[in-house]
Amino acid sequence: MSHIDCDICIIGAGSGGLSVAAGAAQMGARVVLVEKGEMGGDCLNSGCVPSKALLAAAKQAHQMTKGAEMGITPVAPEIDFAAVKDHVARSIATIAPVDSQERFEGFGVTVIREHARFTSPDEMQAGDTTIKARRFVLATGSRPLVPPIDGIEDTPYFTNETIFDLREKPRHLLVIGGGPIGIEMAQAHRRLGCEVTVIEGMKALGKDDPELAGQLLDSLRAEGIRIEEDAKVTAVSGREGAITVETEKGRFEGSHMLMAVGREVVTDGLGLDVAHVKHDRKGIAVGADLRSETNRRVYAVGDAAGGLMFTHVAGYHAGVIIRSMLFGLPSKAKTSHIPWATYTDPGLAQVGLTEAQARAAHGDALRVIRAAFDENDRAIAETRTKGMLKLMAVKGRPVGATIYGANADDLIGVWAIAIASGLRLSKIAGAVLPYPSFGEINKRAAGNYFSASLFDNKWVKTAVRTVQRWVP
């Protein structure tokens, strides 16, 4: 048995935990990082990185089937599904050293690869080591939610934690859940030659703007993906190669099944009750400062904090609590500036309020501005004109933006910065951008906010005529 005294003990080596560990250790704090699984957490090993690598391979295959309008003869790609998974594995392996135990030990972090649990409000046990810390950070993340569907225990299924290990191409993939994960995996597998059916109990992409989400779903259906909404699953059965899903709308049959209905926070086995840390199935009960409501030694970041479940939120949370823990400065997390994206092609991205939320919050003060991709010269040159930007603005400032189209995940960044910094639309409209570029779509949307007041205003026209008449 060994004993460690430290300033900060972090549980979980995903994005949030690693960010806290790196920052705190390099600024002089004594840091212990405990991780029972793989370094890098879900994002590196079974989430963001492998899914985007799979989508990239699928996009490459899809591009080979297009190009006739540019004078390029389409061809049917030959897809080696196992080799695609090798590409996914290489992507993970290339990034893994950045999150490795060796790198963090180089920062001065003590890394313990064991399960951790509280033994008192200020101590944890990790294997044979007792850790006493001034502060604890719970960065335990989340795992795939598998609901208690009739027959699920006897029916083979995949989650995001296992689907990337599948090296034989599914003949027909049944995707249970029409959220971002399910929709991304649906497009990836369809473009890699699988039949795909998405089964959603409510509305697919239900947390996004319904107008632009609907356009994305129409695009996916045009690629041959069957998307069944309002089809609550009642039972599943079968074996690998022959899966049946019973729903309130009927029966669906396929060869493989992917469960993508959501995620649940990992808090079990941590001894939270022993530490007097209030929690529920949604996560740790924390305030805006991300500190436990019932044990002020404990912080929670990322999924464990019970809010938005995105890797970039965990990284943001890390910055919030580092200011508090290391410097004693008041620091609070907010969500109004947090973007998210569905990485399909075309993509869908959101920051701030959707149109419906903005109308509820601001009423008649809201203006909804649109900029279409088919009015952007770069999009026209690349034949990627499918898409729309919707900008929600109040008194000259953006309060939300939704983008459906090519590079939506990159384009949304401007609006994330604008909302976070309170930037006025005049600043974006006045920016000089390279021509031609997709970024001009953002500039056009900002400019459209002022167009009506400038071009359709009789007083403006009168003033211009007066100046032209009298000013030499």
UniProtKB/TrEMBL annotation:
It holds the Pfam family Pyr_redox_dim. Residues 338-445 form the Pyridine nucleotide-disulphide oxidoreductase dimerisation domain. GO terms for molecular function: flavin adenine dinucleotide binding; mercury (II) reductase (NADP+) activity; NAD(P)H dehydrogenase (quinone) activity; oxidoreductase activity, acting on a sulfur group of donors, NAD(P) as acceptor. NAD(+) binds at residues 177-184, 200, 262. InterPro entries: FAD/NAD-bd_sf (IPR036188), FAD/NAD-binding_dom (IPR023753), FAD/NAD-linked_Rdtase_dimer_sf (IPR016156), Pyr_nuc-diS_OxRdtase (IPR001100), Pyr_nucl-diS_OxRdtase_dimer (IPR004099), Pyr_OxRdtase_I_AS (IPR012999). Belongs to the class-I pyridine nucleotide-disulfide oxidoreductase family. This is Mercuric ion reductase. It comes from Limimaricola hongkongensis DSM 17492.
